[in-house]
């Protein structure tokens, strides 16, 4: 089977689809000097963009793992999440404190998304 | 595509299904003063309940990520897990030490479950 | 539904398949005295073996979570990963710092793999 890939690079793809299920790479913020509010906005913005490139919508996000480098940022992340999330179609979610790849990186999100049509 | 959701709330759903694959929210204990034995029982009890609400059984659990706030609890968690798990149909599993959302929370589990019929 | 399982043991299976999607157990190194280079090779070797036992190939790996006990090993893990990964068919990936199950264990990987034919 040839899997559909979004933005394959030399190390990883931004998303890989098995049938109508897309597994996304960890989405990370660009500005590592920003606070949790801004970093969460950047990560959710990137997630929205990948979802759109997959031809899906926010309501198609099935699950998200949220990794925070410091669980003291839990409420700050949630405040942005709660504004962003679809009230009609919220994903399953789990949040844990995990060391992240670069200094200053405060949040990373890993999502599974449903595609509109199986291919 | 409209995804099936179990117990959607303002922040997340307890489970979201893509076809016959259900992605569950992180299951957490209620009693944060309890030891790892009791907290593991509570988490597995909640997992059993969500699985039942999905119309599935313990043998339909495909994978579980186990997050422990202190890896010193690994053996304590395993003792309860080993009593609970289906010997005929054990899930894939990975266990890691992750900071959890609330003080006193010692264990969280994230599962993927097969549904009886695709819908 | 009866799920296909690879190497079921008393505690977990090495992989559990829902249709044509296989969820793998965390793959860990054997030699806990080895450095990150050798441990990463061992983990990727085990991943290759499970993938082969599933009847799949490296290009069928959809996503990998990489857990490192010390994010200082990020570059060392990446050096081995970059030699290993399929340039034509890279998986989605996320890497985080997570405490691992045994002292000396530096890397664990959790993968989702597409099977050639649904069964």
Report the oligomer. Answer: homotrimer
Largest interface: B-C, 31 and 29 residues
**Computed structural class of chain A:** alpha+beta
The biggest sheet of chain A amounts to: 6 strands, mixed
Portion of residues in helices of chain A?
A: 10-25%
How many strands in all of chain A?
Answer: 6
Fold-level CATH name of chain A: 60s Ribosomal Protein L30, Chain: A
Shape of chain A: globular
Number of domains of chain A: 1
User: What share of residues are in beta strands of chain A?
Assistant: 25-35%
| Discrete helix count of chain A | 2
**The level-1 CATH class of chain A:** Alpha Beta
**Distance from first to last alpha carbon of chain A:** 11 Å
Query: What's the overall average pLDDT of chain A, rounded?
Result: 96
Q: Per CATH, which architecture of chain A?
A: 2-Layer Sandwich
Order of helices and strands of chain A: EEEHEHEE
User: Low-confidence stretches of chain A at least 5 residues in length (pLDDT < 50)?
Assistant: none
Task: State the strand order across the main sheet of chain A.
Answer: 1-2-3-6-4-5
Radius of gyration of chain A, in angstroms, nearest whole number: 14 Å
In short:
The structure is a homotrimer of 119-residue chains. The first copy, chain A, is an alpha+beta fold and 119 residues long. Chain A has a single domain, classed as RutC-like (60s Ribosomal Protein L30, Chain: A, 2-Layer Sandwich).
